[in-house]
Design a protein that fits this description.
By secondary structure, the protein is an alpha+beta fold. The protein contains eight helices and 22 strands.
Length: 522
Amino acid sequence: MFAKSSVKNSMMKKRIPTIVGLLVLLGALVSGLLFFGEGTGVFAPRATAETMPKNIRITNLSDTGFTVTFYTEKATSGFIKYGSEPSKLNSQVSDDRDQLSGSVGEYNLHHITVRGLSSASEYYFILGTESRTEYDNEGEPFSIKTSAKPTSSMPPAVTVYGSVSREGGTPAEGSIVFISSEKMGDLSALVKGSGSWAVPLSQALNKEGEDYAALEDNDVLDLLVQGIKLTDKINYQALVEDAQPVIELTFGQKYEQLSLEDSEAEESESEEEDEVQEEEIAELDSEETEEATISGRLMELLDDADPLPTESTASAELILGEDSEEPEVTNASPEIIGVAEPNVEVRISIHSETNYQTTLTTDSDGSFRLSLEELGLELEPGEHTVTYSYTDPNTGEEVTVTETFLVEDPDRVLLAQASTPSPTFTTATQPTPSPTTQPYGTGSPYPLNTPTPVPTIAPPIATDSTTATDSTAASRKQQVGTDSSLTKAGSIGTTLLVALAGGFFILMGSWSWWLATELEEE
């Protein structure tokens, strides 16, 4: 009896330190999780001056979304966490370029657009850089209210566009163009790899955000181009009618500002030209002149207008890899043709208002074809880019190629054909004035509020000329993806937690084995 009591007391003395040790381990684990969760640990990202957002600006406010731009001294990743309640910022969106490419990039200038929101609703958001570093508005999240749905009909499509270059003449990719006016809220757009940019004015809202701005041709637009460096800026002013396109802007050059007197003078000059044309048309109607004279006068009036293409230059095929100084012009649903390595998986992305993505496999000779017409997709007129990427089976490296192409505006060609005068006239009749021409690109290539179409894939129609290879290639085509299918970057927080938990269980298992061994020996 005495021996049993002695053994129990000995085991209790050994168990007490063990229980205390377990409590210490659990406390250390909880403290470590909290330590890392607050972002103050040795291995957790810290807030630095280089990654702190500066020059925060909200643009492109609409009834369904908004854009936040900011600058960081160090090139880093950027994101926004947002929600309808200040304490529940459960949604996250990354930079617009990341949404297109499906990967996380590092930038100095960040352009992040939040979409799919409810109209006339309050939203809250915080900014984030690197992996977990987050910034708010002095302890509170930033807030923004979306506009109500416009009550009036949308104005005619007008898109201002142009290009920006650095001092050396290279495209100023990654710069941001801000456009403001007395009649509308601020708009912005990223400068693409080709140096081009475009902003649709027809969808701009007024300063109050209550209805469409409905800008006129003689309204003044203030343009600010912000470069990668904070010191790189371009200030430029232009009338709406002179911004289609804007002249090529280059960093390091100074441009004269458009004064109000210049604007009024140009408006007055335009009115005088209209009066002169009306008087000339009236004279042609009242005077009985010869047929040749009438034809000549009409041609002089038509020469004052900007030339339009009378024949379509659009191609039904977009051949990738062809060296050309000018972008290829295609129709709204071209067939994309390219060459990669044989029998490899190629990922194709078309960068438009709706981002079309698909994956297919090349043939034995490395060629591939993607018909947008078969997919039921139509691209809006204007500039677009297509990117295809694949893994080289010989080197294991990722190969990515991006090309720019233009989609022709069919209305513009029809307008030119309708306005072409007949070479001869049989009677001296009153001529009809040439319809007002619209410059290329007014088809709103980058609308902000365009509803997202849902593409459908029609099954291939077998014909006598269809080969087995074409049928196999068609069967490998997958349905086009949208923004929701893009991969979103993760965080190192989850990885750290899993590693800590794994280490903890290994220690617990080792300790349990040692304790069982000691007890068995006793």
